[in-house]
Design a protein that fits this description.
The complex is a heterodimer. Chain A has one helix spanning about 20-25, and strands at about 1-5, 10-15, 20, 35-40, 40, 50, 55-60. Chain A is mainly β. The longest helix of chain A has 7 residues, at about 20-25. Chain B has a six-stranded mixed sheet with strand order 5-4-3-6-8-7, sandwiched between helices. Chain B has a two-stranded antiparallel sheet with strand order 1-2. A two-stranded antiparallel ribbon of chain B has the order 9-10. Chain B is about 50% helix and about 10% strand. Chain B contains 13 helices and ten strands. Chain B has helices at about 25-40, 60-70, 85-100, 115-120, 120-130, 135-150, 165-175, 180, 210-215, 235-250, 250-265, 275-280, 300-310, and strands at about 10-15, 20, 50-55, 75-80, 110-115, 155-160, 190, 200, 285, 290. By secondary structure, chain B is α/β, with parallel strands linked by helices. The chains are: A mainly beta, B alpha/beta. The interface of A and B includes residues 7, 34, 37, 62 and 63 of A. The structure holds iron/sulfur cluster and zinc ion (ZN) (2 copies). One zinc ion (ZN) binds next to α13 of chain B. Iron/sulfur cluster binds near residues 122, 134, 138, 227 and 230 of chain B.
Chain lengths: ~60, ~300
Amino acid sequence: MLVHLSHPQRQVEIKGPKRTKELLRELNLVIEAHLVIRGDELVTEDEMLADADQIEIRPVISGGR
Amino acid sequence: MNCGKCKTKAVISLPRHNAAFCKSCFTTFVHEQVARAIKSFKMFTPEDRILVAVSGGKDSLALWHILLKLGYRADALYVNLGIGSYSEESHRKVRHYADNVAAAHGAKLIVHVVEQEAGAGIRELATILHRPTCSTCGTIKRYQFNRAAVEQDYNVMATGHNLDDEAARLLGNVLHWQDEYLDKQSPTLPASVEGFAKKVKPLCRLSEREIAAYAVVNRIDYIVEECPMAKGSKMILYKEVLNRLETESPGTKQRFYWGFLEKQTKPEPATESMAEKDQRTLHPCQSCGQPTTAETCSYCKMMAKAKTATPR
Ligand code: SF4
Ligand SMILES: [Zn+2]
Ligand SMILES: [Zn+2]
């Protein structure tokens, strides 16, 4: 599956099928700081993601000051 | 995973509330959390005129959206800082939301462009003034926010500060024992001077992740990219640390910040010193004479038990 990441913008190819939780763990990302979006819908941690899926992992932490 | 309320497919799980929600139940949950904050911290009523500070990011646009959906009279102020493509993009997102959603609720957008008044963008100003960009930025944004509120008769100023912002700020203040800043962490701050508006943070019960999820679910188009000046900030570090703790034990952030607010509102009962308390509650152990609160100390109890227990 093609996974879009931000900060900085990049794309990685990850082998599916795989649960959301496992995908985040593989990329070393904390659930509390990210949302996983398939197409344009939010998915939960236990959702199974397929090879054909378009995935965006969106960071939710913002900083400043 | 299914929604705990209506049993259809869930789109988000919230470990700290031990809950999972579908899109529409999640939207209801977020609205309820904001309504609760508004009520319990006596923020405003439907008669008040609210000015929301919007940056184009998830928190402030979600806040504007929620206030309009809850039926409040809320306009917004956007300050264009003149930070290259970041400012252009965030300005576009705010404009788009104002024209396509807010206008239909009768709400308007006020825009202040730093370059037009100061002759330069925020980074150039900071260089000229020999001040850090973020503190220059803070001063300008606070000033323009106050000015717009006073000039256009708003009596409440609302910002998109969320649970993560407040918990991270509290952590920073406590780490450096900046007591004088602690008072300013209340979600409602009364007008400092007569004629000025009061300041409120209606999103203080919601985490950053919940607000971002709300924006995605409700198709609010916000700028995901960060202000380039935020890179490497202490706030981001504090948030990362808190999120690691949160992942291990859900509810940590909320207990930390809400617990602080509770302590702040309840006056401390007259405290007895530790020495006084010890002298009142401790006396010698019946069998060995060491201080204990019981008749026999826990060491002696343990040894007595070990001796009577049958050996293996
Ligand atoms: S990161 Fe600094 S410069 Fe950027 S918006 Fe925040 S306070 Fe202003
Ligand atoms: Zn539901
Ligand atoms: Zn003893």
